[in-house]
């Protein structure tokens, strides 16, 4: 097989890149190790920055997001038993976010690609990237037991944190920057109307909790748990009890309902530099991970591939590789902004196992300042909705 761009991974990054390239008339083949049903059902992110939502709209894949997504113009920070609203609309000149599940975006992108007759090869295995340092790289893999090879001009490594693309780059090329956190998030989906119109980020002495949602009838909730926690130790009743304790605030009450999904996600900060080597370009979680507290991971993945699509378009149109050469630098400024914001939100809102009473007082002091000072809450707001650099 031959194509212009081989895309490894059918998550938000790989599928959005395939979509953007097809709008520019550039051919690609997407390969994915999982089944279509698996990637379409995998519950993960839920918050889209305004810029991400605008890009989906502008490229003709935003209709379902606009009809089913929930537009929010603020979030609540809850600590000391009280709520404090961060008003994105007032603080960022009317900007906001859309709550719309990542798997819905994945479904929308798969549908538009398959309806146009463009290929996604699911359930591939033994994926290997070859000759990435040359102008003629290739990707080999097994499909239904048969050996296949895609010859191409460029490879997009969109295969997430555990994929093969990053490890295909020779030793010594990449520098990794990393931080592990001594806790994880236990996340649930429940069939119950959200108990708040807006997301509630809650700091509590027993640990962080987050109330989010997917629709007027489905709630998404998270609890900070120890890093090595096992989901089997959390029967539904224990989850609700802990959520009730942490989220309690005056007369407000948290409605409970049947839990339809639950899982535990590790928390990590990670970046590799550069995000490219030869004709291999890493995008999304393959190149960087943020802890989920700032809701940035999928937004960064989509921004990376938007930059990559522009660079590949210039290259295929005129042979000009200038933008391709600048790909990593162009992405990393935004990546590091999101790294710092996500680390800051995580540090402010979680209980660290080794922290003492002094540390807890510092966190409360930071929270009180963040909700009281217009400068401090503007900083949170402009980062949460997606910081746009004033200088190019
Ligand atoms: P992935 O979604 O990981 O996709 C990679 C794909 O590659 C997968 O389908 C995988 O099966 C496939 N693959 C792997 N190896 C191979 C291989 N060898 N060959 C072929 N295919 C392969 N982000 C936000 O922006 N907002 C949020 O609110 C938010 N909340 C989150 C909450 C949780 C609990 C978690 C866990 C994450 C959250 N994120 C959030 C992060 C977000 O989900 C990720 O950043 C996003 O999925 C990254 O997209 P991606 O396409 O780069 O990678
Ligand atoms: C959701 C996930 C996040 O990581 C976050 O910060 C906010 C909301 C969610 O899944 O809805």
What labels would you give this structure?
12 helices; 2 domains; binds 3,4-dihydroxybenzoic acid; eight-stranded mixed β-sheet; six-stranded mixed β-sheet; FAD/NAD(P)-binding domain; D-Amino Acid Oxidase, Chain A, domain 2; 35% helix; 392 residues; binds flavin-adenine dinucleotide; single chain; alpha+beta; globular
Question: Can you put this structure into words, describing what you see?
Answer:
It is built from 12 helices and 20 strands. Strands 6-5-14-15-16-13-17-20 form an 8-stranded mixed beta sheet. A 6-stranded mixed beta sheet has the order 8-2-1-12-19-18. A 3-stranded antiparallel beta sheet has the order 3-7-4. The longest helix is centred in the C-terminal third of the chain and has 23 residues. The protein folds into 2 domains: 193 residues, FAD/NAD(P)-binding domain; 90 residues, D-Amino Acid Oxidase, Chain A, domain 2 (2-Layer Sandwich), CATH 3.30.9. Helix 1 packs parallel to helix 6 and helix 1 packs parallel to helix 8. The structure holds flavin-adenine dinucleotide and 3,4-dihydroxybenzoic acid. The site of 3,4-dihydroxybenzoic acid has 10 residues, from strand 15.
